[in-house]
Amino acid sequence: MPPAEKPNAASRGRPTLARIAQLAGVSVPTVSKVVNGRADVGPETREHVERILREHGYRPLRKLGAPGAHVELVFHALEGVYDTEVINGVESVASEHGLALVVSQLGHQFTPDALWMERVLSRRPAGVISAFSGLDREQRMQLRDRGIAYVVVDPTEDPGPEFPTVAAHNWMGGLAAARHLLELGHRRVAAVTGPMWALPARARFDGYCAALERAGVPFDARLVGEDDFLPRGGLAQARRLLRLPDPPTAFVAGNDGQALGVCQAVHEAGLRVPQDVSVVGFDDLALAESHVPPLTTVHQPVRQMAATAAGIAVRLAAGKPVERMRVELPVRLVERASAAPPPSS
Amino acid sequence: MPPAEKPNAASRGRPTLARIAQLAGVSVPTVSKVVNGRADVGPETREHVERILREHGYRPLRKLGAPGAHVELVFHALEGVYDTEVINGVESVASEHGLALVVSQLGHQFTPDALWMERVLSRRPAGVISAFSGLDREQRMQLRDRGIAYVVVDPTEDPGPEFPTVAAHNWMGGLAAARHLLELGHRRVAAVTGPMWALPARARFDGYCAALERAGVPFDARLVGEDDFLPRGGLAQARRLLRLPDPPTAFVAGNDGQALGVCQAVHEAGLRVPQDVSVVGFDDLALAESHVPPLTTVHQPVRQMAATAAGIAVRLAAGKPVERMRVELPVRLVERASAAPPPSS
Questions:
Q1: Which of A124, A231, A286 is opposite residue B80, by nearest beta carbon?
Q2: Which of B36, B87, B95 sits opposite A78 (nearest CB)?
Q3: In-domain check, residue A267
């Protein structure tokens, strides 16, 4: 029962803890411990009580703005401007609603561990927002069973129809980036992608492929390099691709971080951006504009995506309906100075 | 009475709320409201109760690791890698102690407003850590009176001897940056500084001046530009300085962000880094290494500074003594490729 379809579950026909305890054949304190995520309940009892909670649509009452009311924001890692943009977006909405923002990161894991989950449940947040990371199915159910909203920003995979997600038009962005280079006259356009298991990386890459096909340029798998969404990922892949017998004259990077690494590899090879090699990024974070040369890139509204996700979490926590469970915000190509026509050699 | 001198205040001779109420001539709920930062107490009553709390060394008991225990981390703004490094550092220590981390930002103000303060007090944190921002005197006293630890990372000004601070050796860093350029043979070395009212900016600038003096190079006020700690600040000042009749051959920037802006201005002027103009930054954040050319800069251990501050806050919150109220962590010059001898024109 997705929260979006049960707007009044918070206040209507809500079973009491005593009723749940009776149905489960356990004490009220035991039900309370399960609801609050305490560790001192055996796994079998926990699962049993969770099933009863789920079956009876239990949803703890929670006053927004009350002391202790907060949202949790979790990152797989905190590494840069993308992350501060997400925090800014969530914080602005949380603050507007008097909610504290608790930030945590998973030490480069994409799924939280049991300790993280236990702590989050014990803190009883109004909602949990994950950014470029995600809870596994069981963890999502644990939140749902406790009436804790769960929203994903920039999802790496689909969390299932009952959990809202907010993303950018990644496929359109990949298309726009590649098309820009093709329209400038490039024919050997390389793609440095993020990790392909993550939806945003895959969608951008598919957009790139679509642009090639529409321009009648054959796809060449040798011009693709997959790596981390970091400068070192772009550097490693571009170094390799620039050593090909017939190297690319242009690169579509998976994000701005990778684009910086690509520019570095171009420079190392004694070539210039954009005179010899063109580079288009993705993100348009602060560093894109102050780069030398200023980066042509696809702008995605990270802060707005995060604020939208926070707004959805707040609505769900207040028991209000959510109109759209899948939000994709538009991107746009920002032309600066890292892309130019290919050298006329 | 600084917490560092009252290690056992949390458990020994601690006056009860009832005793405070009796001494203040108010009800226990009123004292409780003041302690919890609730808004529904008149300002005179509040001040009166706060004075009694202060005089009697009231310190609320708080179990670390209990549900709701957390530290607050506040920024004047969340803008980039510096901020994520601070969050990483605080989060690692907070998480180790089972404390949640609540993050907020002040919308580019350097001192929190009354609403922020009210919310933080109502949440009853174990400690508050401010990064490149600070509470005013009254706000610091409000925390102290409630037994909430307050620690400043990268202080913009001195919060007074009873509040711990953790900074970098900013003066030594400014000295090292300028000395490196002077040793390369530069004689016209410009300084683009951060806002001089902020201690780190001023200390780095003073280090620059000391390096000039020790090298026997006269200080020239026309070679100094003060601006925001952002790329646009470095860009604006370097544009201006490069138009001087006798322009500088090298720049010491206040931080890496400004250094990026300086590089952009050099590029705009049709000059190259480092062949024509050398640039040294300060921070050594992730972007320094992936810049083209890789940035020579002064490394400051931002994550370690933040972790140290969090460790101090946790000790204070647990009623343990703090050995050093002023911590300055060492910096080091990292030579990459943005500084070279001056052109031999």
A1: A286
A2: B87
A3: yes
| Cross-chain residue pair B102–A105, CB shorter than 8 Å | no
Shortest Cα–Cα distance, A194 to chain B (Å): 17
Amino acid identity at B50: E
A78 contact B CB<8A = yes
B254 vs A10: CA distance, rounded Å: 53
User: How far does the CA of residue A239 sit from the closest CA of chain B (Å)?
Assistant: 14
Give the count of Cβ contacts less than 8 A between chain A and B.
115
Would you say residue A131 lies in a domain?
yes
Handedness of CA A178, A180, A183, A184 (dihedral sign): negative
Given CB atoms, is B293 within the 8 Å cutoff of chain A?
A: yes
Could you tell me if residue B160 is inside a domain? yes
> Which CATH number characterizes residue A260's domain?
3.40.50.2300
Rounded Cα–Cα distance for residues B143 and B162 (Å): 12
Indicate if the pLDDT at residue A38 is higher than 80: no
Shared domain check, B109 and B34? no
- Looking at the fold, whether B289 and B204 belong to one and the same domain comes out as yes
User: Is residue B188 one of the residues assigned to a domain?
Assistant: yes
Percent of chain A at pLDDT exceeding 70 = 92
Residue in chain A closest to B115 (alpha carbons) equals: A98
Question: Residue B22: which CATH number?
Answer: 1.10.260.40
Say whether both A6 and A148 belong to one domain.
yes
Report chain B residues whose CB lies below 8 A from the CB of A192.
none
Tell whether B183 and B252 lie within a shared domain: yes
Whether B204 and B174 have beta carbons less than 8 Å apart is answered as yes
Q: Are residues A264 and A293 in the same domain?
A: yes
CB pair distance less than 8 Å for B100 and A91? no
Q: Does residue A275 belong to the interface with chain B, where contact is any CB pair within 8 Å?
A: no
Q: Which residue of A has its CA nearest to B83?
A: A84
Under 8 Å CB-to-CB from A131, ≥6 apart: which residues?
A73, A74, A75, A83, A86, A152, A153, A154, A306
Total domains, chain B: 3
Q: Which residues span the domain enclosing B32?
A: 3-55
Do residues A137 and A278 both lie within one domain?
no
- pLDDT digit string, tens, across residues B49-87: 888 888 887 765 544 445 448 999 999 999 888 999 999
User: Which residues from A are below 8 Å from B257, CB to CB?
Assistant: 290
| Chain B interface includes A106 (CB < 8 A) | no
Phi, psi of B217 (to 5 degrees): -100, 120
Task: Please give the ipTM for the structure prediction.
Answer: 0.78
Give B229-264 as a DSSP string: SSHHHHHHHHHHHHTSSS--SEEEESSHHHHHHHHH
Q: For residues A303-323, give the mean pLDDT.
A: 94
**How many DSSP H helices and E strands does chain B contain?**
12, 12
- Please tell me whether residues A45 and A86 are part of one structural domain: yes
Tell me whether A111 touches chain B (CB under 8 Å).
no
| Cis? peptide before A29, omega within 30° of 0 | no
Domain shared by A89 and A204, yes or no: no
